[in-house]
Amino acid sequence: MSRDPALPRFAILQVARLGGAALALLGVVILSHGQPALAHVPDALGDVLIVAGAIGFFAVPLILARKWKGRP
């Protein structure tokens, strides 16, 4: 049985989504001030992480899929 060539690409898409979700979650934790270790971190960093996480979760997989669609 041969290996499916789409499997590595699917894994990369899932890692991009997981990374985006993790960034957004870290941003939410920073903004909630729930962790004493993160009390000194500015709220602006939490905002940036939430936006970067949302872009990583939603846009990066779409961009990668569109880029890979043109290749054989």
What does this structure look like?
The protein is an all-alpha fold and 72 residues long. The protein has a domain of 42 residues. The chain is 75% helix and 0% strand.
Layout of strands and helices, then pairs:
Layout: H1 6-32, H2 43-69
Percent of residues in helices comes to over 70%
Q: Helix count? A: 2
Distance between the termini: 21 Å
Principal-axis shape: elongated
Mean pLDDT: 92
**Helix and strand composition category:** mainly alpha
Which ranges are low-confidence, i.e. pLDDT below 50, for 5 or more consecutive residues? none
User: What string, H for helix and E for strand, traces the elements in order?
Assistant: HH
Task: Report on the biggest sheet.
Answer: none
- How many strands in all? 0
Please tell me how large the radius of gyration is.
16 Å
Beta percentage is under 5%
Descriptive terms for the model:
2 helices, 0% strand, 72 residues, mainly alpha, elongated
Summary, kept brief:
This protein is mostly helical.
